[in-house]
Design a protein that fits this description.
mainly alpha; 5 helices; 83% helix; 0% strand
């Protein structure tokens, strides 16, 4: 039962983070992904890759890194964050993940306003999914 609950939670988080990150990229008028596009074409020798494919690659990378960071850091601070500062933890994880991906992939020109909206909305989605899934798990344990 817990595997199903964890899979549902992670699927929701992955989709929410990916959609919100794609929204940041799509709404940023001056975004520049040409360097990443050139690097991919150089390494893989592919001319078929366009900017939309690079956008999807960035959003999937940010989503995977965010979920992995939650799993790696969660055991260390689970006790402290069980009731306090869970939203701040998710905000920090999202900030570190998206900034790491944008720095490593050399993404420039993204909108700071849309990035802040992404950070708040993705943190809220993770917080809500955590609360809702935990509530459902408690109900299922009682039955």
């Amino acid at each position: 039962m817990y595997n199903l609950v964890d899979n549902m939670k992670n699927s929701f988080r992955f989709i929410a983070i990916a959609l919100l990150n794609y929204l940041v990229i799509f709404m940023s008028k001056d975004i520049n992904v040409e360097q990443l596009l050139k690097d991919i074409e150089l390494v893989f020798n592919l001319d078929l890759i366009n900017t939309n494919t690079v956008y999807l690659f960035i959003t999937i990378s940010a989503s995977i890194l965010t979920i992995l960071m939650i799993y790696f850091l969660n055991p260390f601070i689970e006790v402290y964050l069980m009731y306090y500062l869970r939203f701040s933890f998710y905000f920090l994880i999202n900030l570190v993940s998206v900034s790491t991906i944008y720095i490593v992939y050399r993404i420039y020109g993204y909108s700071r306003l849309w990035l802040l909206i992404y950070l708040f909305l993705s943190s809220a989605a993770m917080y809500i999914s955590d609360k809702k899934i935990n509530f459902q798990t408690k109900i299922l344990r009682r039955k």
